[in-house]
Amino acid sequence: MKKILAIALCVVMLGSFATMFAGCGNSGAGEVNVYNWGEYIAEGQDGLMNVIEEFEKETGIKVNYTTYETNEDLYNMLKNSNVSYDVVIPSEYMISKMIKEGMLLELNYDNIPNYKYINDRFKNLDCDPDNKYTVIYQWGVTALVYDKTKVEEAPKNWDALWDENLKGQILMFNNSRDAMAIAMQTLGIDPSNCTKDDIDKASEKLREQKPLLKKYVMDQVFTEMETSQSAIAPYYAGDIAAMMDENEDLDYCLPEYGSNLFYDAMCIPTCSKNKENAEKFINFMQKPEIAAENCKYLRYGCANDEAVKLLDDDIKNNELTLPGDEYLDKCYVFGNLDADVYEYMQEQFVKIQAE
Amino acid sequence: MKSKLLSVPYLIWMLVFTMIPLVMIGITAFTDNSGSFSLEAFTSAFEYTNVFLKSLWIALLSTVLCLIIAYPLAYIITQMRESTQNTVVMLLMIPMWMNFLLRIYAWVLLLQSGGPLDTLLSAIGIHGNYSNNTGAVIVGMVYEYMPFMLLPIYTVMGKIDKGLIEAAQDLGSNKMMVFRKVVFPLSIPGIISGITMVFVPSASTFVVAQYLGGTDDIMIGDIIDKIFFTNNHIGAAISLVLMIFILVFLVLMNLFGDEEAIA
Fold first, then answer.
1. Which residues of chain B from 90 to 149 reach within 8 Å of chain A, CB to CB?
2. pLDDT by residue (tens digit) across A147-170?
3. Concatenated DSSP letters of B228-248
4. Exposed, middle or buried by CB within 10 Å (0-12, 13-18, 19+), for B23?
5. What is the distance between the alpha carbons of residues A320 and A253, in angstroms, rounded to a whole number?
6. Within a domain: B227
7. CA distances (Å), B251 to each of B188, B247, B248, in order?
8. CA diameter of chain A
9. Could you say which of B50, B89, B215 has the minimum Cβ distance to residue A1?
């Protein structure tokens, strides 16, 4: 009995070591180490194509695929560990930071011919204005999802998250950036480049909201909304589309004054040892058929014009996946906040929760 | 000489995975971003005193509940035939083979409104809210850590010399007296290690409160997790303070335990 337990524990420990060291060293020819967000690629789910296998089949390059949970995890991994990744997919504000700190390699766009399919809006991104380091992967906006049986009047903007009538049924982002940005928008502050003063005002607004909330959530929002446990929540529009597939009572609202436009882009970090393979991988991901498969799975915005043409009408015409130019013009993009401002924001948000 | 040589790998292990990280936490806690000495992180850490207290309170309640559930259970198991004992212990261990998060998530589904518990109680006319509160957090913790209380107590109880019990019976003790005078005092070391193994991890746990609690149920482990996102110094300072709290608790525990064992 005890022996079995001891062996089981050893196996678990060795297993975790193996995952710790995955992605390190050992990057001989014919490999590419990809470090992406969790569940952020079509891998044969829902009868879709397994994009990674397809790449391996076409090129013969072996993909070592690992995932992270937050931009900060990715940053710490690249900064503090002796690892070698070839393709990473950070969000806009993290890209600014990494470029500033010299953590990314310039891409050779001659090796990425599929870049020509990218919509102009998603070239020369704010975080990479000279277009040297990035190829967009997916984009999206934040929006509201609500339960029609619980919310009487269709909401127009974020104010619905402060509705006294919905007390105890409201969910809120459990992440400082998104939560603070929503509070700032309701106060008429531009969240893209906020100051400590703006953060104080937003914190006050969030303190007012706390007694009305059921919970601060991230992934839990799916079960909460899909099983009609809560009335209203802000989340990422692509995910709201997925929730609406599961529960007919759900509807969405794109705030009238615009919301946060976020995107993740593929980059090559300086620790890369297979730059050419990395560029092949990036190019492959923007092949129209492949980009379309990813879009079908993720339901996030697709920046590849040719791929959009391949999508079914119900995805193409879904405002949550592709909100249209008119709406995007109203949206804002997060800039790279100074480290001390971001730190302050995070700390204030934790304090609100700790009170 | 031979035994010294054998201990070398363990000493290296201790040094690399215990001592050095501890020193690094210490250094991080007592410096600021520029790397110079500063107590600023501790000033910030103490702004979370209410969360500290709440976490310790939740941990204490969970530990007591674990003890109340596990102690009689351990006693009952030791009274069974050996083969039955193994099966029962095995059955109690099986849930631990599953991922920790999955088990917590299962509790979310069990306790949510419209979930099995709610449906069952509504059918007999009891309506209530069972998730997103401190009670749910404690239920999750008790479920999570109960085996850590059960196993040490069970192991110690199983080792009690049957001769002692027979001797007590021969000298005229009834069942109750045998338990009070023989079984309970001899099982105290198991209780002490059980309490330690439940209290320490539950005081510093995170994620459980995030899943089962409401907006007010945030534990110190969650705060450390969030703060480390942007500020290692405050995170390290909170961890250090938590370690001191736990150390004080353990010292008190051991004092108490020794006295009991002597008496």
1. 90, 93, 97, 108-109, 112-114, 132
2. 999 998 999 999 999 999 999 999
3. HTT-HHHHHHHHHHHHHHHHH
4. exposed
5. 9
6. yes
7. 16, 6, 5
8. 66
9. B89
Q: Could you report the predicted ipTM of this complex, rounded to two decimals?
A: 0.84
Residue B53 lies in a domain: yes
Which domain CATH number covers B237? 1.10.3720.10
Is pLDDT at A266 greater than 90 in this prediction? yes
Task: Give the closest residue to A230 by CA, choosing from B7, B113, B166, B240.
Answer: B113
Judged by DSSP in three states, A130 sits in coil
| Min Cα separation B50/chain A (Å) | 8
The candidate with the shortest Cα–Cα distance to A93, out of A349, A337, A355, is A337
In a domain, B11, yes or no: no
Pair of tokens at residue A211: 């007694």
Structural domain for B177, as ranges? 45-262
- With H, G, I as helix, E, B as strand and everything else as coil, classify residue A33: strand
How much is the CA Rg of chain B, to the nearest whole Å? 22
Does residue A184 surpass a pLDDT of 90? yes
Q: Are A265 and A92 in contact (CB under 8 A)?
A: yes
Q: Is the pLDDT at A10 greater than 80, yes or no?
A: no
Distance from CA of B174 to the nearest CA of A (A): 34
- Within 8 A by CB and 6+ apart from A106, the residues are A132, A133
Ranges of residues in chain B with a pLDDT under 70 are: 1-2, 257-263
Domains detected in chain A: 32-133+262-323 (3.40.190.10), 140-260+333-354 (3.40.190.10)
Chain A residues in contact with B90 (beta carbon < 8 A): 1
Question: In this structure, are residues B177 and B244 in contact, taking their beta carbons and an 8 Å threshold?
Answer: no
Q: Number of folded domains in chain B?
A: 1
| Cβ-defined contact of B113 to A229 (cutoff 8 Å) | yes
CA distance B230 to chain A (A): 5
What is the overall mean pLDDT for chain B?
A: 89
Of B89, B215, B229, the CB nearest to A72: B229
